[in-house]
Amino acid sequence: MDHLLEYIAIAFSISALFIAVVALLTARKSHGVEKTSHHVVKKSSQEYESVPRLQIIDEKIFPGNPSAPGKTAFSYKAKVLNKGTKTVNISAIHLDYGDDSDPSQRMKFFVDGQMFLNPKQTYEFVKAITWSDVEEMKKNYDFNSCTFFLRITYVTPSGDMNDSTHALYGFDGLRPIFHARTEENLT
Q1: 18 in helix, strand or coil?
Q2: N or C: lower Cβ tally within 10 Å for the chain?
Q3: Which residues pair with 100 in a beta bridge?
């Protein structure tokens, strides 16, 4: 009877060892899948976080008076903030003005060129466009209305150039047709 109890104990021990090995192998295989899945999620998250997250803050729009032709037609002050976790390569910042729907019929007013904005870093600028600039645009493109745009060109993580354009202010003849909200805008 003692031998029978020993055999039963050994059988239980071998069964427990077999179950433990199977559980260990299953856990390792499951962990490998989870690790791979976690890796994919992490990679996807890294790709998402590396997309530039620029925000326009503290912007002020100052439209000029059309009855003062030698003066400022449009003045713009703003800060560009990098809200992302990675440095953003900005190729150029422009204030474009001209047709509201056809970018080929706009004058390109250069604000600033190549720069790198670190996370949480801001870049502030103030630029003005005169009425003589607007009159030249009207002559070049033969129309009376004018819309002003902020255009930021930046390099994407894949190396492509991308433009982010926002309409700021517009007028038709002497009357304003819209004035953009001067709240925080994301690009």
Answers
A1: helix
A2: N
A3: none
